[in-house]
């Protein structure tokens, strides 16, 4: 008789979109198997069929309410690639300024507002001594961010007021007091202080993005051939406003985000040592974001089985998607140019759990040369160090020296967060170099932002792709054009890579693999599962979608008692 028990977390919250996780644990509360299931159908590719290729970006950016710009850019770039249109350098620089700003914003928001409460016990902060908290903050930074005794005391009073009034709001549901929390009261208070400060900063970064993007969340500045941000580019005040905000954000990263991550590494060193959250060790990067004369921010390459001494060249032709365990008709591994998105839902088990065999997710299974890959900040930092990147390696070595971490240690749940913090620091710093390139061009009267073309003269048949590193990993949009209309369109997004179900060979996706071997302190409150899954920064809205053309309610979901928001 089996002593195994199945635990269902549905929905996984504090992410974009709807994700269901099921894990099977043994008598020692160790996870022996896992299933990750995207619970809504993705339909954007179908909506794009028959459209004018020049319009795909405006529609494709609606794939997600968070990742709007990167889908917009990848879609526009796919069409430009199909038609062989090269954009001016200024257009590329402006696109990079917006995208890298979103890297910084996304990483800060993800850690503090979507993930930090997996490490931080809010109720534990109420018992903190503000005087001791000041000293604690100074252990991790020479100049801690807004960490005076008076300010920390006011933060504690604010949190206490929420509790006494019985209105914790977004903090109302949580596993507070859980055995898996490791920070002391003063560290919890420091984190909550920065949680509140980050709320203000994310608004400021949105302003910086809007300077060149026209607006945010859904930007309007990209067109096939370049950008429309000419007036902003030529306005010194607008450039200065952008830099002023980025300087403020950089200050927060240096004095709050990086020190807080060092604190997490210290507090959860046992989790790192146990390898909690480690997946298969296969990492993939496409590289990119040029600046200066010959430099680029991210390296391309593929690492397998944590072999950091052997780097394969990235080859996009090796990318396929299959659906043997996904709710679609065609199970075969197909190139994204030939991919199909025909729904074939096969229902759940009679008890409402996922089928252990057969199809169980709306997320497809992307593979690289038949292998599962993990993408994202962790992959970029590991490949950057392994390839001796002059940009990435110094930042990573500095963090490793301060924390005592080794490169393998980053391949854990805690390590993914550390890699993301280091990447935010890098992107923020190199925004200044990117802006310098723009100013240099303007200085020498290069004001071109668009490549002229005549649509009627372009080929009637073409195909192209836009592949970029974006906050959550490698994003690819693939378009095939026939008779000057979209004949096929596929988006292979970061969360599709990481959240993929098992494939025909029964190889687990990165989420699933990272959960196997995890020990739960309390199966009724699976905080450890949330901690690992959140470390990937899931965005299921990018991986799966649903649309009802009549505008009717499709489904309603109720939070289970005790499931954190």
Helix/strand order, N-terminal first? EEEHHHHHHHHEEHHHEEEEHHHEEEHHHH
Q: Structural class, from helix and strand content?
A: alpha+beta
How do the strands line up in the largest sheet? Answer: 1-2-3
- Percentage beta strand: 5-15%
Helix content: 40-55%
Return residue spans where pLDDT drops below 50 for at least 5 consecutive residues.
545-565
Largest sheet: 3 strands, antiparallel
Report the radius of gyration as a whole number of Å.
23 Å
Whole-number average pLDDT?
Answer: 92
Q: Report the strand count.
A: 12
Total helices: the number is: 18
The shape, in one word, is: globular
Distance between the termini: 36 Å
Describe the structure concisely.
The chain has 565 residues and is an alpha+beta fold.
